[in-house]
Amino acid sequence: MATPHNSAEKGDFAKTVLMPGDPLRAKFIAENFLTDVKCVNEVRGMLGFTGKYEGKEVSVMGHGMGIPSIGIYTYELFNFYDVDNIIRVGSAGGMQDDVNVRDIIFAMGAHTDSNYGFQFGLPGTFCPTATYDILEKAVNIAREKGVRYHVGNVLASDAFYKKNCDEADRYRNLGCLAVEMETVALYMNAAEAKKNALTILTVSDHLYKTEELSAIERQNSFTDMMEIALKTAIKL
Predict the structure, then answer these.
(1) Which helix (H) or strand (E) element contains residue 28?
(2) pLDDT value, residue 78
(3) Is 77 helix (H, G, I), strand (E, B) or coil?
(4) What is the rounded end-to-end Cα distance, in angstroms, of the chain?
(5) Its quaternary structure (predicted)?
(6) Is 91 flagged in the annotation as binding?
(7) Closest C-alpha among 68, 51, 92 to residue 5
(8) Residue 205 a catalytic site member
(9) Which of 4, 202, 193, 12 is nearest to 106 (CA)?
(10) Domains of the chain
(11) What is the model's pTM?
(12) Which residues contact 13 (CB under 8 A, 6 or more apart)?
């Protein structure tokens, strides 16, 4: 059954879907890591693919930029396509001194300046978190690979360019590892649908250092993160 944003039919997606923001990164993963690949969605250029990794069916699809965009795509996957697990594979801006460009971050929880959670009508502040089982599996795989990683909270922000705001300094002071723009919607949608989610990030730049990766490097060079996510997916 197609949706306004997805032409796939029910059953076209595997139970576990990897989701990068950039649809071309989804294409890169499908072409370089999966076998028996089938393109299942091209609506609005948001490419989605299903194939096999080490013999197990896995899907990969872009989710676009920002909380509203990932909110739409993950809601539809969880609620209309019977997807059980979503692993976001994205980029982030580092915030702590011991976080370096190309490090991997596992987002245990997500702070936000977004009003996305208002729709749930909750009193107080809802704290969306990753699914521990997926987080534990992914961290163990990263440890076995010997990659440099961090586990902790990230900030999911509504704005990439901000005017006259010391928000980053305040979150950095409270131990926030990095800033990105999507995880809070993924984790909230997973909680509401009783499904599972994890965000894995590669640090592409740093708010307090000068090093950063180019757009092409972001698209094509996050292979450690991709492999960790895929090896996690086949364990679910």
Answers:
(1) helix 23-33
(2) 98
(3) helix
(4) 25
(5) Homohexamer; trimer of homodimers.
(6) yes
(7) 68
(8) yes
(9) 202
(10) 16-233 (3.40.50.1580)
(11) 0.95
(12) 40, 48, 50, 59, 61, 77, 81, 82, 83
